[in-house]
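[job 0412] stage=fold_complex status=start
inputs:
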Amino acid sequence: MRLAAPTLLLLQFVACSTGQIGLPSGSGSPAFPTGGTSNVGGASAVGAGGLGAGIGSPFVTRMQRLTAAQYRTTIADVFGPAIVVPDLEADSRIAGFDELGAALVSTSARGVELYDAAAASVAKQVLADTARLPTTVGCAPASPSAPDQACAATFLDRVGRRLFRRPLEADERTRYLSIATEGATATGSFWGGLEFMLAGLLKSPLFIYRSEWSAGVAGAVSRIGGYDMAARLSFALLDTSPDDGLLDAAARGELDGAEGLKQAAARLLASERGQLNVEDFFRKMLRLPNGTTPEAVAMKNETLFVLRELKAQKAPFTQIYSAPFTFVNDTLAELYGLPDRPGATMTKVMLPAGSGRRGLLGHAGVLSESGLNPSAILRGKYIREALLCQVIPPPPPNVVPVLPAQEPGKPETMRQRLTRHRVDPACAACHGLMDPLGLALENFDGTGRYRADDRGMPIDPSGDLDGTAFTDAAGLGAALATHPGASQCLVATLHRRLTGQYEQGGQAATIERLNSGYLQNDHTIDDLVLDIVAVETFSEATQAP
Amino acid sequence: MQNSISRRTLLRGVLGGATLAVGIPQLEAMLNGNGTAYAAGGALPKRFGIWSWSNGVHLPLWVPKQTGTVWDLSEQLSPLADHRDYFSVVSGMETKYGIGKGHCTCHTNLLTGMPIQADGGFNSGTASGPSIDQIVAGSLSQGAALKSFELGVDNGHAHETGTGHRYFSHNAPDSPNVPLYNTRAVFERLFPLQRAVGMTQGTLDTSAAVQKQVVDALHADAATLSKKLGAADKLRLAQHMEGIDSIQRRLEGVGAVSCDSPGAPDSVENATLDSSGSGDEGGTYVNVELLSPKLNLMMAELLAMGLSCNITRVFTYQYSGPGTRALYPSIGIVAGGVGHPNALSGYHAYTHADGDQLECKRMVKFYMSELAALLDVFRKTPDGAGNLLDSCAILATTDVAEGLTHSPSDFPMLVLGKAGGALRGGVHYRSTTAEAATKVPLTLARAVGVNLATFGVEAQLVQDSVAELSA
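[job 0412] stage=fold_complex status=done
writing structure:
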């Protein structure tokens, strides 16, 4: 399963101080913020992972909190969509993903209060519909006004397994059944006892957090299996807690080996929810609009539909940057100046030659990202950071990040103006990486509409992407599609989302091996998801010190 | 004397109109004859607060021309005219770690005294340690029901990686205190037994013994989970369990106060315009301006109640978060690209626009008028022999000195309140040597009796208060 062939790291090292891109020299101390930083693999890419063998280090485990979305979906899955989950503390997104933030960010005192209130509210709602109670609970108590351990246990065993993502241990079972008994006695109601018990389960750190594995010895590596793998797989591929079928598979040991894991993953991925989860990943990685207005939905769907089409053609993801076709409805067709009027339905159209509009960089959702007055700098930063996974360091201290003033009566194009600010070497180092890429998109205004000139002044969209010259935005897209960093960035970002962790320094070899396999085997995005599930960084973990 | 104002009438502001039964803070019966201390002998509590606004100021319009005690209000400070004796201006100081990663940097440097976390680049926008409000709360909040209270009006903060882009108050790295933006949520946290119908815990509140049993089970579960965690995650879990214990202590009556609980206010918060991208300029946008003055008054009155009832003694009122993207239509901060909602840009984008930035200049004055409204409420709230602001030390500050440059130099800071006589008020102190701005939070901490020996690290390590601010 593991590719034995040594692979050369394609890590890109952005050293703004020189403006050059090359292989990282040495490893160790974080280059940020005094120098540049590598695009993937963390600060010390050549770590303990055994670079030569192409095997990366498993992650040091981190406790993952359920994101607010995962919490809500889990409640809907277990108790039905009618249950209203009150406010939860906002997630703190890291590197574009709430899931990565949930591995690092602590819950505030107020956040704990919100969990407390949510647990009480959900428990109350679940047990409020007296007509449905026997169905909800799975049995009827001997008396509605007295404890009934057997019936409480029926409910606890089913619901507790879903919430804790494993069967309860004997001592846990005893404790929660005791709560049901004492609660029923105190309230004079069997259902009141169950409400106490269920609220307790929902308040438990064993529900709110997960830590997938432990050998009990700091630094020890072992395979994640059983119920821990069921949870890992379900949150990675469906963004929710594992269902009964997956927990049953875990109980049978089917997730402990590579083949069973792959089969389970393929089943989850093929589901409607699995496919939506992949699209949600792309929305976050590519920073697509997330609104609910018709325009925002059309912009998001344009990109997602092109990705679907590429998958159907078994074409690599990177063709998103050079695709000669796109999907439009009337709104987008008008915006793009196309003759087609397909109505409200997103419809595949070929893009006319000559406009420079090709691939993702011609999509309205991307072109409008930096605001109504498009910023060539932010557009370039987007390409470097979101599409190539390069981290542009902040401006050095003592640099005032303001463009030189424009002289009254002497209008300049954006290119002229940005060229003037790059005269300063302190600015040029990093802006030489960003500005030329953003300037290639100057033919498109802040809404994504084509413009032949900039207030009457000619636009020059030509430039150079890391050694590949281009003449316009379409050329930049073509250069991106063949840029080694493009597929590597997709792999690295998907790897982050699925493992739930940002690289810690030893995962670069795994990412590069995945990238090689992805490129060599003409893999689709689904293949790549299954590739990632199969690697050591997904199935193994290192015990944190 | 302020005390002659009827307590029942003073808080009858926007919260609930004439029908609202308001809290009765600091009952006279509890005080000594002069209203300067508790009858039982204890000193009246002091309060510590942070008040924040977004995207800095325009320094030429912000810094007063004269220094000392005789100075004219600057253009951007003019909304605070009614409160001249109650606040001081500090200018000329700076945070010492440059502009860093923009809107997460300066306020985090100022409030923690430390550089932002350098975590290999991907998560460098978070604090490296606790912010001053939490340091102060560690001792000032002993015995209070809530260690600290965070609330806000404009939730349109920046969206880049790192909690410093979102929040001013931190317990530790990656451990922010998230503000409450909804009036009902604020009310329910202050007065948890007064939850609105539908939000009550029902039977769960009534059976104390069973409730205790649940808490014991949660601790047993935490012990199980803890076995699988490394040291860093053990701390995260411990913080969570402290939150659970805090809820339980409160249920058992710790920090109970003798205030009348007011009725629940209307549920008010700024609408979220969820129609934007998820990138640096994306996220959620709020149309703040339509509601802000009313929302600010409600929040101010709720906060005044919480403080004067001694439910909490430390607060962060994040009026507006770092680098807000919110819209303020009456100021001229409006959504761009009608029909293309992904192009919404908000206040932050205006601060990076060419030209004279008239909208941004108006925004600073708007924020100061909102701050003035808060001070109004605090001064109308009696506390002992004086008013609530007499007992407060509040640092009002922002995320960058100027929005256009993200500059840390000449950092805008206001010192509000008298801290029980420890702060002088009415001063403009201008540093001519670019002293570390961390002197100001140190001064305020000491003013409320938290006698830190030093504050900050490296170039921000300070041991002297700003003497000019002290009474």
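[job 0412] summary: Chain A touches chain B through 112 residues (CB under 8 Å).
[job 0412] exit 0
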